[in-house]
Design goal:
alpha+beta; hypothetical protein PF0899 fold; 3-stranded mixed β-sheet; 2 helices; 27% helix; 32% strand; elongated
């Protein structure tokens, strides 16, 4: 379950940022997670329940913001929403696609006290 190590990294990164501002608590954290990131959201949320224990995030609201998949066709240069990793270009039918959105995992914001 790689979600546990991801959860631990999220806690570590958020605490490092909060400590720069001498915060004693993180009240909210927003996570952007792409639909093609390979992360099981429910498993990550479950792992975060354990990872935040005894940390600045222990009482934080955790907000998950999904990022939809977007692709760009390398043949006709069309931009389009991707329903799956193996979707062809809706304009020309090519499978020569570059994923431009949907693989992200990032902390968008944290609120501190």
């Amino acid at each position: 379950m790689h979600e546990l190590s991801i959860a631990q990294s999220i806690v570590q990164l958020a605490e490092q940022e909060a400590q720069k501002y001498h915060a004693w608590q993180i009240t909210e954290i927003e996570l952007e997670i792409g639909v093609f990131s390979g992360i099981e959201i429910q498993a990550l949320m479950f792992a975060l329940e354990f990872a935040v224990k005894d940390s600045l995030l222990e009482k934080a609201d955790i907000i998950y913001l999904p990022i939809e998949g977007k692709g760009e066709c390398r043949e006709c240069e069309s931009d389009f929403l991707l329903k799956s990793l193996f979707s062809p270009c809706p304009n020309c039918g090519s499978y020569n696609i570059q994923i431009v959105n949907g693989k992200e995992l990032r902390i968008k914001s944290i609120c501190i006290k």
